[in-house]
Request: fold
Amino acid sequence: MNNIFEKIKIAFIVLLAVSGMEGFAQKSYNMQGFEMILEPLMQQMFSAKKDNERFAANEKFISEMEEALDYDKSFAYKFPKLDKINILTSKDKQFKIFTWAIADDNGTYENYGFIQSKNKVTGEYQTFRLFDKSEQIMDEENQKLDDSSWYGCVYYDLVEQSFDKRTYYVLLGWDGNDLYSRKKIIEPISFKSDGRPVFGQNVFYKDKDRMRYVFEYSTDANFTLKYGLQYYDIVSNQKAKGSKFHKPKPFEKEPAKTEKDKMIFFDLLEPATMGMDDLKLYYVPSGEVVGLKFEGGKWKKIKHNILPRNKSEKNDDYEPNYNIQRTLFPKKTKK
Reply:
Protein backbone atom coordinates (compact mmCIF):
# COMPACT_ATOMS: atom_id res chain seq x y z
CA MET A 1 0.00 0.00 0.00
CA ASN A 2 2.86 2.39 0.87
CA ASN A 3 4.40 1.82 -2.56
CA ILE A 4 1.17 2.90 -4.26
CA PHE A 5 1.12 6.23 -2.47
CA GLU A 6 4.82 6.82 -3.17
CA LYS A 7 4.13 6.22 -6.88
CA ILE A 8 1.20 8.67 -6.78
CA LYS A 9 3.44 11.29 -5.19
CA ILE A 10 6.25 10.81 -7.73
CA ALA A 11 3.83 10.82 -10.68
CA PHE A 12 2.24 14.02 -9.44
CA ILE A 13 5.62 15.76 -9.11
CA VAL A 14 6.68 14.65 -12.58
CA LEU A 15 3.40 15.85 -14.09
CA LEU A 16 3.84 19.29 -12.57
CA ALA A 17 7.47 19.49 -13.64
CA VAL A 18 6.59 18.60 -17.23
CA SER A 19 3.94 21.29 -17.30
CA GLY A 20 6.69 23.91 -17.07
CA MET A 21 4.67 25.96 -14.61
CA GLU A 22 7.28 25.95 -11.84
CA GLY A 23 5.67 28.60 -9.64
CA PHE A 24 2.25 26.97 -9.83
CA ALA A 25 3.74 23.52 -9.42
CA GLN A 26 5.50 24.40 -6.17
CA LYS A 27 2.40 25.99 -4.66
CA SER A 28 0.10 23.23 -5.87
CA TYR A 29 2.31 20.39 -4.79
CA ASN A 30 3.04 21.94 -1.44
CA MET A 31 -0.54 21.73 -0.24
CA GLN A 32 -2.98 20.36 -2.81
CA GLY A 33 -0.50 17.69 -3.75
CA PHE A 34 -0.10 16.63 -0.15
CA GLU A 35 -3.86 16.58 0.24
CA MET A 36 -4.15 14.22 -2.74
CA ILE A 37 -1.95 11.79 -0.81
CA LEU A 38 -3.55 12.39 2.59
CA GLU A 39 -7.20 12.03 1.57
CA PRO A 40 -7.13 8.31 0.55
CA LEU A 41 -5.04 7.52 3.63
CA MET A 42 -7.67 9.22 5.77
CA GLN A 43 -10.43 7.16 4.16
CA GLN A 44 -8.46 3.99 4.84
CA MET A 45 -7.94 5.02 8.49
CA PHE A 46 -11.66 5.16 9.12
CA SER A 47 -13.12 2.60 6.72
CA ALA A 48 -10.70 -0.35 6.63
CA LYS A 49 -12.24 -3.43 8.23
CA LYS A 50 -9.02 -4.77 9.70
CA ASP A 51 -7.40 -3.23 12.75
CA ASN A 52 -3.87 -3.42 11.37
CA GLU A 53 -4.90 -1.75 8.08
CA ARG A 54 -6.47 1.22 9.86
CA PHE A 55 -3.46 1.84 12.06
CA ALA A 56 -0.97 1.29 9.23
CA ALA A 57 -2.79 3.94 7.19
CA ASN A 58 -2.84 6.18 10.25
CA GLU A 59 0.95 5.95 10.69
CA LYS A 60 1.47 6.82 7.03
CA PHE A 61 -1.02 9.69 7.36
CA ILE A 62 0.89 11.07 10.38
CA SER A 63 4.18 10.96 8.45
CA GLU A 64 2.73 12.74 5.40
CA MET A 65 0.87 15.27 7.56
CA GLU A 66 4.00 16.12 9.48
CA GLU A 67 5.80 16.82 6.21
CA ALA A 68 2.90 18.89 4.85
CA LEU A 69 2.71 21.06 7.97
CA ASP A 70 6.39 21.99 7.62
CA TYR A 71 5.52 24.19 4.63
CA ASP A 72 5.02 27.90 5.25
CA LYS A 73 1.69 27.96 3.40
CA SER A 74 0.21 25.13 5.46
CA PHE A 75 -1.24 27.30 8.23
CA ALA A 76 -3.46 29.22 5.80
CA TYR A 77 -4.48 26.09 3.90
CA LYS A 78 -7.87 24.70 4.98
CA PHE A 79 -7.44 21.06 3.88
CA PRO A 80 -11.03 20.87 2.55
CA LYS A 81 -10.80 17.19 1.60
CA LEU A 82 -9.80 16.07 5.10
CA ASP A 83 -13.39 16.15 6.32
CA LYS A 84 -12.90 13.42 8.92
CA ILE A 85 -10.12 15.32 10.66
CA ASN A 86 -11.27 18.00 13.09
CA ILE A 87 -9.44 21.25 12.35
CA LEU A 88 -9.91 24.33 14.56
CA THR A 89 -8.18 27.69 14.06
CA SER A 90 -8.15 30.55 16.55
CA LYS A 91 -9.57 33.85 15.31
CA ASP A 92 -6.32 35.65 16.04
CA LYS A 93 -4.35 33.04 14.03
CA GLN A 94 -2.27 32.14 17.07
CA PHE A 95 -2.78 28.42 16.53
CA LYS A 96 -4.43 25.70 14.50
CA ILE A 97 -5.14 22.25 15.89
CA PHE A 98 -5.81 18.96 14.08
CA THR A 99 -7.29 16.01 15.99
CA TRP A 100 -8.81 12.64 15.15
CA ALA A 101 -9.33 9.19 16.69
CA ILE A 102 -8.98 5.64 15.41
CA ALA A 103 -10.94 2.75 16.92
CA ASP A 104 -9.31 -0.62 17.41
CA ASP A 105 -11.11 -3.95 17.25
CA ASN A 106 -11.83 -4.05 20.99
CA GLY A 107 -13.69 -0.73 20.91
CA THR A 108 -10.91 1.42 22.39
CA TYR A 109 -10.22 4.77 20.72
CA GLU A 110 -6.70 6.09 20.17
CA ASN A 111 -6.39 9.87 19.78
CA TYR A 112 -3.93 11.68 17.52
CA GLY A 113 -3.18 15.27 16.65
CA PHE A 114 -0.96 18.12 15.55
CA ILE A 115 -0.87 21.73 16.57
CA GLN A 116 0.60 24.66 14.69
CA SER A 117 1.28 27.71 16.83
CA LYS A 118 3.06 31.02 16.38
CA ASN A 119 6.49 31.58 17.88
CA LYS A 120 6.13 34.99 19.55
CA VAL A 121 9.83 35.76 19.07
CA THR A 122 10.27 34.88 15.38
CA GLY A 123 6.64 35.26 14.25
CA GLU A 124 6.88 31.90 12.48
CA TYR A 125 4.62 28.89 13.01
CA GLN A 126 5.96 25.81 14.78
CA THR A 127 4.44 22.34 14.42
CA PHE A 128 4.06 20.00 17.38
CA ARG A 129 2.80 16.45 17.22
CA LEU A 130 0.45 15.54 20.09
CA PHE A 131 1.12 12.30 21.98
CA ASP A 132 -1.83 10.88 23.89
CA LYS A 133 -0.71 9.84 27.38
CA SER A 134 -4.13 9.93 29.04
CA GLU A 135 -3.86 6.37 30.35
CA GLN A 136 -0.68 7.29 32.22
CA ILE A 137 -1.84 10.60 33.69
CA MET A 138 -2.87 10.46 37.32
CA ASP A 139 -5.14 13.10 38.86
CA GLU A 140 -5.90 14.26 35.31
CA GLU A 141 -8.04 17.27 36.23
CA ASN A 142 -5.23 18.92 38.19
CA GLN A 143 -2.19 18.50 35.91
CA LYS A 144 -0.58 20.89 33.47
CA LEU A 145 0.36 18.99 30.30
CA ASP A 146 2.05 19.59 26.97
CA ASP A 147 2.40 18.12 23.48
CA SER A 148 4.45 15.16 24.76
CA SER A 149 1.94 14.33 27.52
CA TRP A 150 -1.44 15.19 26.03
CA TYR A 151 -4.82 14.19 27.48
CA GLY A 152 -5.98 12.96 24.10
CA CYS A 153 -9.38 13.71 22.60
CA VAL A 154 -11.00 15.05 19.44
CA TYR A 155 -11.73 18.76 19.79
CA TYR A 156 -15.03 19.91 18.32
CA ASP A 157 -15.20 23.53 19.54
CA LEU A 158 -12.84 26.38 20.37
CA VAL A 159 -13.99 29.14 22.73
CA GLU A 160 -12.06 32.43 22.77
CA GLN A 161 -12.47 35.16 25.38
CA SER A 162 -10.52 38.36 26.09
CA PHE A 163 -9.69 40.15 29.33
CA ASP A 164 -7.09 42.80 30.16
CA LYS A 165 -5.55 42.67 26.66
CA ARG A 166 -5.11 38.90 26.90
CA THR A 167 -6.87 36.13 24.96
CA TYR A 168 -8.02 32.99 26.75
CA TYR A 169 -8.63 29.79 24.78
CA VAL A 170 -10.72 26.80 25.84
CA LEU A 171 -11.14 23.64 23.77
CA LEU A 172 -14.13 21.30 24.09
CA GLY A 173 -13.32 17.71 23.24
CA TRP A 174 -14.72 14.19 22.90
CA ASP A 175 -12.95 10.94 23.72
CA GLY A 176 -14.47 7.64 22.58
CA ASN A 177 -12.56 5.91 25.39
CA ASP A 178 -13.81 2.30 25.20
CA LEU A 179 -16.88 0.06 24.85
CA TYR A 180 -18.17 1.02 28.29
CA SER A 181 -17.78 4.77 28.69
CA ARG A 182 -17.18 8.01 26.82
CA LYS A 183 -15.44 11.19 27.96
CA LYS A 184 -15.75 14.89 27.24
CA ILE A 185 -13.18 17.47 28.22
CA ILE A 186 -13.02 21.22 28.91
CA GLU A 187 -9.38 21.99 28.08
CA PRO A 188 -7.84 25.47 28.56
CA ILE A 189 -4.82 25.94 26.32
CA SER A 190 -2.04 28.53 26.39
CA PHE A 191 1.37 28.89 24.75
CA LYS A 192 4.97 29.51 25.70
CA SER A 193 6.95 32.18 23.86
CA ASP A 194 8.36 29.58 21.45
CA GLY A 195 4.85 28.41 20.55
CA ARG A 196 4.89 25.19 22.57
CA PRO A 197 1.36 24.41 23.81
CA VAL A 198 0.46 24.13 27.48
CA PHE A 199 -2.70 22.12 28.14
CA GLY A 200 -4.48 23.02 31.36
CA GLN A 201 -4.71 26.36 33.10
CA ASN A 202 -6.03 27.69 36.39
CA VAL A 203 -8.90 29.73 34.93
CA PHE A 204 -11.73 28.28 37.03
CA TYR A 205 -13.01 30.66 39.71
CA LYS A 206 -12.47 29.45 43.31
CA ASP A 207 -11.12 26.15 42.03
CA LYS A 208 -7.38 26.87 42.19
CA ASP A 209 -6.10 23.33 41.65
CA ARG A 210 -8.32 22.53 38.67
CA MET A 211 -6.65 22.65 35.25
CA ARG A 212 -9.43 21.07 33.19
CA TYR A 213 -12.75 19.23 33.46
CA VAL A 214 -12.95 15.56 32.48
CA PHE A 215 -16.43 14.04 32.34
CA GLU A 216 -16.82 10.28 32.01
CA TYR A 217 -20.22 8.74 31.39
CA SER A 218 -22.07 5.70 30.07
CA THR A 219 -22.01 4.98 26.34
CA ASP A 220 -25.82 4.84 26.53
CA ALA A 221 -26.08 8.42 27.85
CA ASN A 222 -26.51 11.60 25.81
CA PHE A 223 -24.22 14.01 27.65
CA THR A 224 -24.08 17.66 26.62
CA LEU A 225 -20.99 19.83 26.71
CA LYS A 226 -21.23 22.89 24.50
CA TYR A 227 -20.75 26.63 24.33
CA GLY A 228 -23.54 28.95 23.33
CA LEU A 229 -26.43 31.15 24.31
CA GLN A 230 -28.23 29.65 27.28
CA TYR A 231 -31.22 30.70 29.39
CA TYR A 232 -31.21 30.71 33.17
CA ASP A 233 -33.52 31.83 35.95
CA ILE A 234 -32.45 34.43 38.51
CA VAL A 235 -34.34 33.67 41.69
CA SER A 236 -35.29 36.75 43.72
CA ASN A 237 -35.01 36.94 47.49
CA GLN A 238 -37.13 40.06 47.62
CA LYS A 239 -40.55 39.95 49.17
CA ALA A 240 -43.35 39.83 46.61
CA LYS A 241 -44.98 43.13 45.80
CA GLY A 242 -48.71 43.30 46.18
CA SER A 243 -51.35 45.02 44.11
CA LYS A 244 -54.85 46.25 44.70
CA PHE A 245 -56.09 42.86 43.48
CA HIS A 246 -53.68 40.68 45.43
CA LYS A 247 -52.08 40.92 48.83
CA PRO A 248 -49.00 38.64 48.96
CA LYS A 249 -48.48 36.26 51.83
CA PRO A 250 -45.48 36.89 54.15
CA PHE A 251 -43.43 34.04 52.62
CA GLU A 252 -44.07 34.98 48.98
CA LYS A 253 -41.08 36.17 46.89
CA GLU A 254 -40.82 38.05 43.63
CA PRO A 255 -41.02 35.62 40.65
CA ALA A 256 -37.79 34.48 39.00
CA LYS A 257 -36.55 36.44 35.99
CA THR A 258 -35.30 34.59 32.93
CA GLU A 259 -32.03 35.88 31.51
CA LYS A 260 -29.76 34.65 28.73
CA ASP A 261 -26.02 34.75 28.15
CA LYS A 262 -23.25 32.87 26.39
CA MET A 263 -21.61 30.19 28.49
CA ILE A 264 -20.11 26.72 28.55
CA PHE A 265 -22.85 24.45 29.84
CA PHE A 266 -23.00 20.76 30.62
CA ASP A 267 -25.16 18.12 32.27
CA LEU A 268 -24.55 17.29 35.90
CA LEU A 269 -23.72 13.59 36.01
CA GLU A 270 -24.78 11.03 38.60
CA PRO A 271 -24.76 7.21 38.84
CA ALA A 272 -27.86 5.62 37.33
CA THR A 273 -27.88 3.04 40.13
CA MET A 274 -27.26 3.50 43.85
CA GLY A 275 -23.93 2.19 45.07
CA MET A 276 -22.16 2.82 41.73
CA ASP A 277 -20.47 6.11 42.69
CA ASP A 278 -16.98 4.92 41.69
CA LEU A 279 -18.02 3.36 38.38
CA LYS A 280 -18.21 6.06 35.70
CA LEU A 281 -19.60 3.66 33.10
CA TYR A 282 -22.92 3.92 34.97
CA TYR A 283 -23.00 7.75 35.05
CA VAL A 284 -25.84 9.54 33.24
CA PRO A 285 -27.22 13.11 33.20
CA SER A 286 -29.15 13.94 36.37
CA GLY A 287 -31.48 16.47 34.74
CA GLU A 288 -29.59 19.45 36.16
CA VAL A 289 -27.44 21.69 33.99
CA VAL A 290 -24.30 23.57 35.08
CA GLY A 291 -23.02 26.74 33.40
CA LEU A 292 -19.59 28.38 33.28
CA LYS A 293 -19.57 32.07 32.39
CA PHE A 294 -16.39 34.02 31.60
CA GLU A 295 -15.90 37.02 33.89
CA GLY A 296 -12.68 38.87 34.74
CA GLY A 297 -10.35 36.26 33.29
CA LYS A 298 -12.03 33.32 35.05
CA TRP A 299 -14.77 30.83 34.27
CA LYS A 300 -17.34 31.15 37.05
CA LYS A 301 -20.12 28.71 37.80
CA ILE A 302 -23.59 30.17 37.31
CA LYS A 303 -25.32 30.10 40.69
CA HIS A 304 -28.74 30.59 39.17
CA ASN A 305 -30.97 27.89 37.75
CA ILE A 306 -29.80 26.86 34.26
CA LEU A 307 -32.85 25.86 32.28
CA PRO A 308 -32.75 22.28 30.99
CA ARG A 309 -33.23 23.45 27.40
CA ASN A 310 -32.08 26.43 25.39
CA LYS A 311 -35.35 28.08 24.39
CA SER A 312 -33.83 29.32 21.14
CA GLU A 313 -33.01 25.78 19.99
CA LYS A 314 -36.00 23.52 19.49
CA ASN A 315 -35.48 19.77 19.93
CA ASP A 316 -32.07 20.35 21.52
CA ASP A 317 -30.87 16.83 22.32
CA TYR A 318 -27.79 18.09 24.19
CA GLU A 319 -25.27 16.89 21.67
CA PRO A 320 -22.38 19.13 20.54
CA ASN A 321 -22.84 21.18 17.38
CA TYR A 322 -20.46 18.82 15.65
CA ASN A 323 -21.92 15.47 16.70
CA ILE A 324 -18.75 13.42 16.36
CA GLN A 325 -20.06 10.44 18.31
CA ARG A 326 -22.86 9.73 15.84
CA THR A 327 -21.18 10.72 12.58
CA LEU A 328 -17.51 9.82 12.60
CA PHE A 329 -17.54 7.30 15.40
CA PRO A 330 -20.94 5.56 15.69
CA LYS A 331 -21.56 3.27 18.61
CA LYS A 332 -20.99 -0.39 17.97
CA THR A 333 -24.16 -2.40 17.93
CA LYS A 334 -24.46 -5.21 20.42
CA LYS A 335 -24.68 -8.68 18.91
Q: What stands out?
A: The radius of gyration is 24 Å. The longest helix spans residues 22-47. The chain has a mean pLDDT of 83. The first strand starts at residue 86 and ends at 89.
